[in-house]
Design brief:
Helix content: under 10%
InterPro entries: CENP-V/GFA, Mss4-like_sf
CATH architecture of one domain: Beta Complex
Strand content: 35-45%
Shape: globular
Distance between the termini: 22 Å
Radius of gyration: 15 Å
GO molecular function: carbon-sulfur lyase activity; metal ion binding
Family: Belongs to the Gfa family.
CATH topology of one domain: Metal Binding Protein, Guanine Nucleotide Exchange Factor, Chain A
Structural class: mainly beta
Pfam family, one: GFA
Order of helices and strands: EEHEEEEEEEH
Largest sheet: 9 strands, mixed
CATH class of one domain: Mainly Beta
Number of strands: 9
Number of helices: 2
Keywords: Lyase, Metal-binding, Zinc
Amino acid sequence: MSESKTIAGPLSGQCLCGAVKVAAKNVNPEYHACHCGMCRRWNGGPSMAISAQETVFEGEDNITAYDSSEWAQRAFCKHCGTNLYYHLKPTGEKYLWSGLFDDQSQFKMAGEIYIDRKPPGYAFVGDHPRMTEDEFLKSIGMK
């Protein structure tokens, strides 16, 4: 976790149809926006995800997960298609889509990754770290 204060929680949320519910405890409120091609294709724009030390899903039989690369897995509700999480295999971390949660008022952008892959036409304001694809892959030990 970063230096940011964690949210004890639990924070609750769900997919669009309600078939999958999530409760997260000890949540890092800082999210990172990812501009990689896979995230943009999957979301229709950049992904914004948070991490939690403890996550419990209700309706797990409604979750479909697949390997989107040799080092990542993505999951969604098999009924409504809501994106649920991104699992980074090398570290074991799961990043939950920030939009799942009912109360997002304490979340804040902490950085952007794959900034060199961001298409023109939008930009996030603020003074936060921005990592290129190469910098990010090195940070997770993939280069």
